[in-house]
Amino acid sequence: MNFFKKIFSSERKDSNFTEEAKQSLDKGLEKSKSSFFSKLTKAVAGKSKVDDEVLDNLEEVLISSDVGVNTTLKIIERIEKRVSQDKYLGTEELNLILREEIAGLLSETNTSNDSVFSIPTDKKPYVIMVVGVNGVGKTTTIGKLANQFKNAGYSVVLGAADTFRAAAIDQLQIWADRVGVPIVKQQMGSDPASVAFDTLQSAVAQNADVVIIDTAGRLHNKVGLMNELSKVKKVMQKVVEHAPSDVLLVLDGSTGQNAFEQAKQFTAATEVTCLAVTKLDGTAKGGVVIGISDQFQIPVKYIGVGEGINDLQVFNKIEFVDSFFN
C-alpha cells in the first residue's frame, strides 16, 4: 500500500463525514465527473500503457476541466515520476494514480480533515469577514453558513456591511429571518466599518459564538476596495482584538477560469485566509476547486453542492477526490 492509499484509508476511516453529506457531494459533482471521465476515456482510447501521447492528452483533459495550467503541469509532473518508476504503467491504473496525486496536492494546502461546522475554542466570537464579487452566491453562502453554525449549536449574528447595494441588505435580512438569527444593519450608503463595529458590539453584548460580516462585492476599483476592507478590519479590532478570525472569499465555481481571476484580484486587495467555492452542482467545472486551492495556496473551507439550505459543506479533500473519481 503506497503513501496516498494510506492517506485515503486512514483519513476516510477517521472522517466525520455523514452518509447524507456524501450523497449530496456525489450528486453535486455529477456533471463535473461525467464531463471529466468522458474526456479521459477519449484520451486513453486504444492505449494500454501511459506514454507521452497519453500524458499530452491528459494535460488537455485537465486544462479543459478548469484545473488550471500551473496545477495541471504539477499533476502531469507527478504522474511522469510514477511512470518513470514503473515503465509498464497501464492506462487502467490512471484513474487511481490521478486520484492519489490530486489528493496529495490538495493535502498540501487543505490540512484539516474535519467535516463539521466548528470554531476554535480560543476565538470567541469567531468573526468571519466575507468578500467576493456580486453574483457569486455570497449572500446565500452567508445564510447557509449561519444555518449550519446554528444547527451545530452556536449562536450567530449577521452584519450587513455591504451598504453599497440596498438589495444586499434586504437579501441578508431575508436569510436572517429564514435561519432565525439576529442581523445588524444600517441604511444603504452607510459606512461599512460602522456597521461592522455595531455588529461586533452587539455580538459581544449577546455573548455570541459566531459573527458573519458581509462586505461590498465591487471590484472596479481595487485600491478603493483595499482601503475599505482595511478600514473594516481596523474598526472591528477595536471591539474584538483577533477580528477577523477568517477572511472568506466566495467564488462561483461555475465561472471556471474567471474564478481564478477573481481570486487573484481579491487576494491582492486583502489577506484572504480561506475560500468557499459555490454552485458546483450546476456546472462541469468542479476541477476549479483543485486549481484554485493549489495556485493560491489558500485552503478551501466550504463548498456549495446544491440549492438546499444544507447543501453548503465543510470541504473534505479526501471525500471530494473520492466523489470526483469514484
Automatic annotation (TrEMBL):
SMART domains: AAA, SRP54, SRP54_N
GO CC annotation, single: plasma membrane
Keywords: Cell cycle, Cell division, Cell inner membrane, Cell membrane, Cytoplasm, GTP-binding, Hydrolase, Membrane, Nucleotide-binding, Receptor
Single biological process term from Gene Ontology: SRP-dependent cotranslational protein targeting to membrane
Keyword Nucleus belongs to the record: no
GO MF annotation terms: GTP binding; GTPase activity; signal recognition particle binding
HAMAP family the record matches: FtsY
NCBIfam families named among the record's database cross-references: ftsY (TIGR00064)
Family according to the record: Belongs to the GTP-binding SRP family. FtsY subfamily.
Function text: Involved in targeting and insertion of nascent membrane proteins into the cytoplasmic membrane. Acts as a receptor for the complex formed by the signal recognition particle (SRP) and the ribosome-nascent chain (RNC).
Name the record gives this protein: Signal recognition particle receptor FtsY
Protein's organism: Flavobacterium indicum (strain DSM 17447 / CIP 109464 / GPTSA100-9)
Lineage, highest ranks first: Bacteria, Pseudomonadati, Bacteroidota, Flavobacteriia, Flavobacteriales
